[in-house]
Amino acid sequence: MQFHHHGYVSTDPRTQDAAGVGIDRPDELPDNVDVLIVGTGPAGMITAAQLSQFPGITTRIVERRGERLTIGQADGIQARSVETFQAFGFAERIIAEAYRITEMAFWKPDAANPANIIRTARAIDDPTGISEFPHLIVNQARVLDYFAEVMANSPTRMVPDFGYEFASLTNTTHETNSVGDYPVTVTLVHTTGPKKGQERIVHAKYVVGADGARSGVRDSIGCTLAGDQAFHAWGVMDVLAVTDFPDIRTKCAIQGTTGSILHIPREGGYLFRMYVDLGEVAPDDNGAVRTTTIDEIIVKANEILHPYTLDVKNVAWHSVYEVAHRLTDRFDDVLPDEIGIRSPRVFIMGDACHTHSAKAGQGMNVSMQDGFNLGWKLGYVLDGRSPESLLSTYSAERQVIAKNLIDFDKEWSSLMAAKPEDLKVPLEDFYTQTAEFPAGFMTQYPPSMLIGEATHQAIATGFPIGKRFKSAPVVRVADANPVELGHHHRADGRWRLYAFADAANSSALTAWAEWMRTADDSPLLAHTPAGTDIDSVFDVKVIYQDAHTEVDLGQVDPAFLPKTGPFGLIDYEKVYAADPAHDIFEQRGISRSGAVVIVRPDQYVAHVLPLTATTDLAAYFRQMLLVR
Ligand SMILES: Cc1cc2nc3c(=O)[nH]c(=O)nc-3n(C[C@H](O)[C@H](O)[C@H](O)COP(=O)(O)OP(=O)(O)OC[C@H]3O[C@@H](n4cnc5c(N)ncnc54)[C@H](O)[C@@H]3O)c2cc1C
Question: Ligand 1 centre from 351 Cα, in Å?
Fold first, then answer.
């Protein structure tokens, strides 16, 4: 963590100085806001947390509930989400309180006595080391708390505005199409306090509907969720119980003769969640299955677990739901015949545009990646760094990802619901063979204004263009600390440019660094706003092939040792060397002639270029960043 460079800090350095709209932030919801986010679920909160890092932008996040979420909903946190939490600065703390999944056990009827279940297999959760981050289980409420903390400690001092329900919106973009206006008029209704029931009108430049599966924002832009109902119901319960089931602290898929259970141990050492199969639902059931009581769910769980028993002592939360796989065809308010003519003003994300079963543990995770994708783009457009066309990439990128998720989830849910003897692929094989998907690392964005063509992919094969930047160990030259290169990527809205040095005398690197510092078309000079630190938009780092002891800091180009802050202090944390024990050049297939890897603010690899391809580098950024 870097701090003190604006002067001595004696308090928690995680709390940033208030700046911009964070100074004297009004408690009351203002009449005009840049971004109005509806819903404080994972999608809305990560979007707010990202925008909270942009001090010039007024973002407010409204929520129908009168206070924070306390219980229930999702709990599965894939490694990609933990990686994202790392960027927001709270991975270590949430890991410490969460349950960590290392193994999954599979139980089936005993062939000799099918009334009894027996353990038939165990599978390592991440057998190939997809990520250095763990797979966690922790309640959604805690995730939201951490994002709230990030917002509160940010320069904008953002806090959710509880007690406002979204009612409707009108968008006058067609009449006043300019960012200076507030073309979206939103009607909210107070849900708590003395003004309960009264309307509150807010004008916004952009509205983000993160208001869940029954999204009103979605309806207001004429989007509908299309898809199919699986006609299969599940009871879910978070309980404390005494049991003789031996794998009670291990994640299990349990397939009995009378149904199946997905068993998930929870944080804290005692609590666990069971998704209990309630069987097929008749098409004319009309939701009657949702009246299934907790006692009935417990009876069913005991039947499936036979010969083991479950004596439930305390029910923290329970719910009944039917699996529905549904998706909207667009994630913003631009109709198909308006694409390329106007930019979006209203966006939807998370469950508002994709719903699926809970058992692949994806809902919260994919929803957060929607928000991480959109947050920085809104920040860039509103800050005047990018043209509005950047915003069209949100729907284009995320809609396809949601479609893939739904296809995956349909397969997983139907396997979970099937009888063991009917399965063509054993459940445990499907689980391990497809591990990259539920871990959150299969996302690969296609070429666009944000994603370069793979022309030079061969010089950095371990950083596939369009996929998230997979970290690797390096040594920080200044203090000989072994660190993970990717973990320095904070969710601060900046781009990362990693210059991997060429071998021997690094002549290509030297020329590249000089171009970056001096050429008019270098992104540093073309797109860094005047009056800000030279690394305020681009965090430029170098990684040498030699051991750190061979790198002379005195000879390192100033492009990698920028002077920043009011005192013009040198930032020493941009110069790295390969760790001889885990050579990043070997591990990530980096050419010994060097390479430049460009990483977006949301951690996706945007482009790979040779050190000599400065014209291409300049052209890449000119597509989506305005000249300062
Ligand atoms: C009851 C329930 C149980 C769930 N159980 C599981 C589970 O067991 N496992 C699992 O993996 N996933 C579960 N999910 C799904 C998972 O929680 C979601 O996939 C995830 O939360 C999606 O995040 P989101 O931000 O898109 O939406 P949500 O987390 O649903 O957040 C939407 C937010 O918007 C607010 N809101 C809604 N309408 C309005 C309005 N008109 N005005 C203002 N605010 C509004 C809501 O109060 C809520 O806070 C459950 C969801 C629900 C609702």
Answer: 7
